[in-house]
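Progress report, Aim 2. The chain analyzed during this reporting quarter is listed below.
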Amino acid sequence: MYQTEPPLPAKETLPTMYDLPSEDPEEAGLPDQFHLFQPQLLTETFRPPLYPIEEIFTASDLNLYYDSRYPLWHKRPDWFAVVGVPYLYENRDLRLSYVVWQEAINPYIVVELLSPGTEKEDLGQTLRDAEKPPSKWEVYEKILRVPYYAIFDRYKSEFRMFQLTGDRYVETLHETTLSNSRFWIPGLELGLGVWEGKYQNVQRLWLRWYDRNGNWMLIPAEEERQKAEQERQKAEQERQKTERLIAQLRSLGVEPDLD
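Predicted structure tokens for the chain:
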């Protein structure tokens, strides 16, 4: 009896990121400055201690292909993070897009920065045309089942966090008094909160990650300043120690050789 060959794995038959378009000329224009700076701050402070840096991938405004039945359907989250996946595509290349049927790991958290033109889709308030792709909310909740979905509205000064509970998102935080708005994520050993400070020379409210002690995760420039301050303090301590030693020697009638 003739036997057919078993079907190839999906990874070998479906399009890869090299096959799929990474840009769509019909989509909205380039992000404004806030949509550039805020995702950058999220990425710079996203360092979950449970994962090595080689297993952390973050992206903003990158095509996210989510359904192998409709390979061209995609969303472009303002920012998302995946843990437990190689930082480079197949450990060798920068990603053109994130293709879930190739990666086999879905995002752990998505952050959307609300704009008047995208608010209804981001909040799942649009009616779906059966012939068109689902909304972002539907994709994150029903298809990708992203555990955490954060929304930050800089126009209304709102920070909202949704957690996947069962088969739907449950709102676990809705803050309009943003001076101390924080949400802890145990699976990351990190929290996401609203920080008021200066970033990229702009003083405003920003979303930023914090550690288990409640300290804001440092950006590289802050780490450099902290390191320089620690070195300055160490040098000052050494100077004071030397001066005390010199004083002790002189009190004993010994003139130290300072050359």
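The two ends are 97 Å apart (CA to CA). The helical segments are 10-13, 33-45, 100-103, 119-122, 136-143, 220-251. These observations will guide the mutagenesis work planned for the next reporting period.
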